[in-house]
Design brief:
Length: 201
């Protein structure tokens, strides 16, 4: 996976995309002493770091640069506020105007794309979905919003969830996404009484 640039001064390593971030190109230069930079190159993030960094120190340095750049993306910087705004629009369109009390990105959901607590009307969306197209995020939001009306995956629930025209397509997309990432996504996404179930890690 690693290759060395012809100059011999910069080592380049390409890290494949992970659940919560795109492909990352790490360029380690002997001319860099302390500082690092990160920028987008298409859908890839390129980070430049001092070559002297090794092991864990290097990992932390790279992760920090990548995280900071990801947080600068408009849809990420706007964060929960824009997610909540989008959910409100979708609730009007598809969920009979039934709104969530809060909608936020979370990074600690590893076996679910999103979850809903009907009692407290809270919706949480896995931050790994930030990499997905907007229509997929919309479909996921509509699914969770529908749980505010119907907690179970009943026919009545699907009548609401499938008002989003790309719900089926979204499910297929996410199946492939999970497969590509080697994830096992569980069926349950409703938390009773607002408490996380035992299956959440
Ligand atoms: Zn569900």
């Amino acid at each position: 996976m690693a290759r060395t640039a012809p100059s011999g001064k910069t080592d380049v390593v390409i890290e494949p995309p992970r659940f919560d971030r795109p492909e990352v190109e790490i360029r380690a230069s002997v001319r860099r002493k302390k500082t690092g930079t990160a920028h987008w190159s298409g859908s890839r993030i390129v980070v430049q770091i001092p070559a002297r960094l090794r092991g864990r120190e290097r990992r932390v340095f790279v992760d920090d640069l990548v995280t900071r750049l990801l947080n600068q993306r408009p849809q990420n910087a706007a964060g929960d506020a824009s997610l909540e705004e989008r959910a409100a629009v979708l609730a009007e369109l598809y969920n009979d105007g039934v709104m969530a009390a809060s909608v936020r990105w979370v990074s600690n959901q590893r076996t679910r794309w999103a979850s809903c607590s009907p009692a407290s009307k809270e919706i949480r969306v896995s931050s790994r979905l930030r990499q997905c197209p907007e229509w997929v995020i919309d479909a996921v939001l509509v699914h969770e919003l529908a749980h505010l009306q119907e907690a179970d995956h009943s026919p009545a629930f699907y009548e609401i969830a499938h008002r989003h025209p790309r719900q089926g397509e979204s499910a297929l997309y996410l199946e492939g996404f999970a497969l590509g990432l080697g994830l096992r996504i569980e069926e349950g996404d409703v938390d009773v009484n607002g408490t996380a179930s035992a299956t959440v890690d």
